[in-house]
Amino acid sequence: MGLDKQKRTRELSILRMTAFLLYNLFGRFLPRTTMPYSMGSKKIRFFLVKNFITSCGKNLTVETGALISPKVHIGNNCLIGENCIIRGEVIIGDDVLLAQNVSLIAFNHHYSRTDVPIRLQGESFEPIKIGNDVWIGINVVVTAGVTVGSHAIVAAGAVVTKDVPDWGIVGGIPAKVIKYRNKV
User: Fold this and answer.
1) Residues 6+ apart with CB under 8 A from 14
2) Residues 73, 109, 110, 151: which is the catalytic one?
3) Which residue did the predictor score with more confidence, 94 or 30?
């Protein structure tokens, strides 16, 4: 029984590695899903991504050029826009829209020592969590350890360094609450 489980684990690992390589060598560069000549780009990218990330819901659309790490959890009915970067452990809820060029970077470089170059000081990793029903605008950067609450909107070009409350609309550098969606 134990050998069967080891064999299955090894097979899944090989499948994940193969899907990751195929996505990065081929799938990322397929045409946009809205182009008439895309010939199934959406289905191919979905198949590859769901087979290398940690978990994937239904009805995911990944546009061309998106760079996605394996330690990602994506919910149902999500859109990952063109050229998005999702690095490190990132948890994305249901019904999330990431516009073009969004960067979700779940790690930082250490820099406290002045006698050692920053590149040699190591990294720290903190997961990013995105709630349900969130819209993150074009060119947004979300840094390590941030939680974006459910029903939030992050305005284009924002740099999010602190948690965003549920229903919050944030913008700016660094991002600050502008108003709340549920309070008109």
Assistant:
1) none
2) 109
3) 94
**Lookup: tokens for 107:** 């790690």
Distances (CA, A) of 156 to 48, 60, 140: 29, 22, 6
CB distance 64 to 32 below 8 Å? yes
- How far, in Å, CA of 75 to CA of 133, rounded? 10
- Whether 6 is in a domain gets the answer no
**pLDDT at 119 (0 to 100):** 92
Given this model, what pLDDT does residue 38 score?
67
Q: Is residue 26 assigned to a domain?
A: no
Q: Confirm whether 109 is a catalytic residue.
A: yes
Q: How many domains, in total, are found in the chain?
A: 1
Strand duo 61-62 + 79-80: pairing: parallel
Q: Is 12 exposed, middle or buried (0-12, 13-18, 19+ CB in 10 A)?
A: exposed
Angle between helices 2-25 and 41-50 (to 10 degrees): 140
Domain ranges, residue 79:
56-180
